[in-house]
Structures are given as structure tokens and as C-alpha cells.
Amino acid sequence: MPALTLIGKPGCHLCDDARTVITEVLGDFDDVELTELSILDDAALAAEYSEDIPVVLIDGRVHSNWRVDPARLRAKLLEAS
User: Fold this and answer.
1) CA–CA separation, 74 vs 48, rounded Å?
2) Who's near 73: CB < 8 A, 6+ residues apart?
3) Contact status, residue 56 vs residue 25, Cβ threshold 8 Å
4) Are 11 and 19 in contact (CB under 8 A)?
5) How many domains does the chain have?
6) CATH code at position 54
7) 4-8 sheet: strands from edge to edge
């Protein structure tokens, strides 16, 4: 089961958009869970990703930032499963 992580922050409209796309895509995957992390809670994440949020990681590797393409995310999750 691939590990899917969304890095963002509260009040970020792009993060909200990314969460919506991810939630829709995850409807096709029973075995994938989303973990959300906030750059406001982790100085290391803020230092690395503050200009790139939202950031989507699959198995710890950056899959996308700013916008999430549902077809691309679905294909990558299928490949990682």
C-alpha cells in the first residue's frame, strides 16, 4: 500500500483544492490512506516546502506541488500499489 501525504497549511485554497482532488481519487483505492501535515507544525517542512504547497508525496517522494492532476495521481497510485 503506497503512503500518500499532503503537505500544506490551514487557510491555503490550493491545499483545499488538492485535498478535494485527492479525496476523489482515493475513492478508487481502498488500501490507500491520506496523511496530512502542516508546515505550520514542523519547521523542517516549512523550510523545505513553504514556497511549494500543497505538496503531494507518494512513498516519501514528491509527486506534485501547487496543483494535483487527478489522472496523473491515479496512474501513480496504481503503479505503486
Assistant:
1) 25
2) 21, 22, 25, 56, 63, 64
3) no
4) no
5) 1
6) 3.40.30.10
7) 34-38, 4-8, 55-58, 61-65
